[in-house]
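Subject: for your reference before the review

Hello V.,

The reviewers asked for a structural picture of the protein, and I figured it would be easier to keep everything in one thread rather than splitting it across files. Below is the amino acid sequence we used in the manuscript, unchanged from the supplementary table.
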Amino acid sequence: MTAVAEPTTWVSVCALGAIARESGVAALVHGEAVAVFRDHLDEVHALSNVDPVSRASVLSRGIVGTRGGVPFVASPMHKQPYRLSDGVCLDDEAVRVPT
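And here is what came back from the structure prediction:
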């Protein structure tokens, strides 16, 4: 059996200019809390806004930066860094945020 990836569908939540570089905003998309980030290269990433460790809806308020050239957001709760590209925690790959 071959798994087929579902196509990505983007939903407009705000103008790109409304998100400063290396920051994020929160949005409610189809009933889910989503964090939308703009990295230092102007790329846009969307993750769940829910921190998987604290279960609080706060990731959009995290610190956005890079580690070894990899854009990430550090949770404002306990500072775990999550890769913006796929939501994997840089300190513990068993922990991830849905993208």
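For the response letter, the relevant points are probably these. The domain at 19-83 is CATH 2.102.10.10 (Rieske Iron-sulfur Protein). The chain has a mean pLDDT of 92.

Happy to draft the paragraph if you're swamped.

O.
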